[in-house]
Amino acid sequence: MNTGKVDVLLGLQWGDEGKGKVVDVLTPRYDVVARFQGGPNAGHTLEFEDQKYVLRSIPSGIFQGGKVNIIGNGVVLAPDLFMGEAKDLEKSGHPLKERLKISKKAHLIMPTHRILDRAYEAAKGKNKVGTTGKGIGPTYTDKVSRNGLRVGDILSDFDRKYSEHKERHMKMLAALGWTDFEGFEETEKLWMEGIEYMKGFQFVDSEHEINNLLRSGKNILCEGAQGTMLDVDFGSYPFVTSSNTICAGACTGLGIGPNKVGNVYGIMKAYCTRVGAGPFPTELFDETGKKIRDLGHEYGAVTGRERRCGWIDLVQLRYSVMVNGVTELIMMKSDVLDSFETIKACVAYELPDGTRTEEFPYEIDDVKPIYKELPGWKQDMTKCKSENEFPQAFRDYVSFLEQYLETRIGIISIGPDREQTIVRK
Fold first, then answer.
1. 44 included as an active-site residue
2. Is 169 a known active-site residue?
3. Annotated catalytic residue, options 44, 94, 107, 113
4. Candidate from 71-85, 113-127, 352-366, 389-403 with smallest mean pLDDT
5. What global pTM score does this model have?
């Protein structure tokens, strides 16, 4: 680990790779955990000491005493949802106000952003993106169009600023012909309570905070939300999120220079999943896909939505390794494949014109996966305490992946608990 550097941890597929658990496992090595993008549509599930926690906006280092946790400027924050999440954690004995700092430059998700989200999706008809309706996209749209409301605005003349933004949104909704405002008053009331609650936290200029911590020799872990294939520039556009989920997003989402990035940990599953609409070349619509979903408990941590499941896509993963500059891979949910006779891995695509490619193309709507079949290990790995106990067929699978992706797999997860994590020698 590099002193004076930030290490970055991010998902390499379509999100839901298990970043929360890995951050929690890695945090003992770090002094600071900082979240650099995304909103409360992403849930990080952590399980330990027989408790299950779902984090939406709060960094996963919050469970480790003595760590600094920072919500960076690249995050969009919903005060009401933040309040609910924070109070739940406080109830379980974690002193958030001592451990968490919030960037003044982070943008606020307003109640009207959620209505706009629904209105825009409805207007798209059959071309829906499949958003969670949490207002993330409209908040980032306001940010980019220089119309955003930020955390720092809470500190002065907030009511006026809020009213002006709300009025502008109402005009936009009227132009869209939107009339469904059911429950808006209750939502707005709770949202304002969230604003008051947030005033109990320390608002900081996170770019100064992070760089000062780096100068003082602190080790910092930057935590992303979602996955590389949901990146607004490099993902499966337009079925993406509204922020940069790749490693470069840590620089813009926290205010650090590229020369400060040390290790880049890329998380993947031993198979592949996706939530929401959009292309997914290795998706399985048969009993195998259903079996993976059931064994992997593939349902959204925040939304409860069924995740679409498929075999691992190495064309997509090699692309993700490239655009992120991944230095080490972390493979999650290996145990889900314990009972399969054979395992498949997509090693190339057949394009609509019949040609074969191993490069991730501009569009993946009509590509066909070309698979390599590998023998399954047919053994329960959830009790393994070291890599020496792994079955040979699983070791062969790991070696095959490392060879194809030209990157070492340093950590292998074989179950949801913190203890079920094998750090390879």
1. yes
2. no
3. 44
4. 113-127
5. 0.91
